[in-house]
Amino acid sequence: MTKSGGTWFGQPKGLTVLFLTNMWEQFSYYGMRALLVYYMTRQLMLGQGHASLVYGTYTACAYFTPILGGVIADRFLGKRRAIVTGGSIMALGHFMMTFEPLFYPALATIAVGNGLFLPSLPSQIDDLYERDDPRVGWAYNVYYVGVNIGGFLAPLICGTLGELYGWHWGFGAAGIGMAAGLVIYLWGQRHLPEQARHPAVERHAAPRARFPRHTLLLLITVALAVTVFRGAYEQVGNTVALWADVGVDRHAGAATIPMTWFQSLNPLLVMLMTPPLLAWWRRRAEAGRIERPARKMALGALVVGGAYVLLAALETAGTPAHWLWLALFFAILTFGELFILPTGLGLFARLAPEGLGATTVAAWYLATFAGSLFAGLVGTLWSDMAHSAYFLLLAAIAGAAALMLQLIDGYAGTFGQTCRESD
């Protein structure tokens, strides 16, 4: 049932190649992102508001360019050439970050390379399996672990190098990570499917599918709610990172915890929380208690809002908070994230009409793009408000998203099981 011969760990060998390639690409992305706001405010001496806008614009572009890159890969380059080209461009951009005068061109270079790379790698997973292979469902779970392993290691390695030895060392390590991913991908090409080499050939098939009106309205309103939600959620690498520097007592005995290490908590907690949360949802489903996705997402947004209320309460104390409180914040935020973001992506994929799956998922990335821009604008208020009031503002933004999603849930219920979760 495996198209490419041989298996590793009970899965096609090609999945391990994609897993490791993805892990190192995520290492490079999150390693650079962990340093970005500190580098702008400490090394480049940019104002906090300016740095926030740059951060928001960059993270937004990281989700916008894949929409265009996927079209280029499908129609012109093919998946493999898109990955090799995009990965090479990204590695170049990371190394460019080691030179201060190339800061803005480097960010643009990374975003362009990411556009080619990001949509092409996971789209090869299905090609590894025959249509009726039951392992394909678990393959995406395995692949997603690579995202979180890379995201966990990056701040520990790149962040420590950048914070203790110089920012250019951290950016250089991110570039080396991207180069390592490319080497693994090129080495493992013999384990990947042949069809990934060539652009897709357009077929004269049935007329293009169209969205039912109620489904289209549902997806648009969910996308708007997620855009609002990300205005609060995306502060983790922006203003929350700044607060970790000035508002947190990072001493652990005689040692001081590097501020970038806290960026590793979110991916670590995703890995730890996901299995028991999935098991709990499965037991509820077996008992017939299945919540509609919009309601589950509303709960997640409320939980994230609660995490920011915690930070606001800590700020009112007037003294630096112990670092364990910041760890608790990340635990609460990650728990809420697991209710809203994976659920939203699954909702978009499930409601896509036949033949419009990629387009529908691209719309999810478009909402992420808009939300990241909104987060950059929200972040500019950090220097103009009391920090406790600012965190309450973030809680209110997350609460507004929760209210929107709760209203959407009421609408979704009008067309029955269309929006129901699968097991």
From TrEMBL:
Q: Does the keyword Membrane apply?
A: yes
Compartments (UniProt record): Cell membrane; Membrane
Q: PROSITE patterns under this entry?
A: PTR2_1 (PS01022), PTR2_2 (PS01023)
The keyword Membrane appears for this protein: yes
TM segment ranges: 23-41, 53-73, 102-121, 142-162, 168-188, 216-233, 261-281, 293-311, 323-349, 361-382, 388-408
Instruction: Name the source's superkingdom.
Output: Bacteria
What is any one of the record's Gene Ontology cellular component terms? Answer: plasma membrane
Which Pfam family, an example, fits this chain? PTR2
Question: Molecular function terms in GO for this entry?
Answer: peptide transmembrane transporter activity
Question: Which membrane topology describes this protein?
Answer: Multi-pass membrane protein
GO BP field: oligopeptide transport
**Record key words, sorted:** Cell membrane, Membrane, Peptide transport, Protein transport, Transmembrane, Transmembrane helix, Transport
Q: What family is this protein classified in? A: Belongs to the major facilitator superfamily. Proton-dependent oligopeptide transporter (POT/PTR) (TC 2.A.17) family.
| Annotated protein name in UniProt | Peptide ABC transporter
Native source organism of the sequence: Novosphingobium guangzhouense
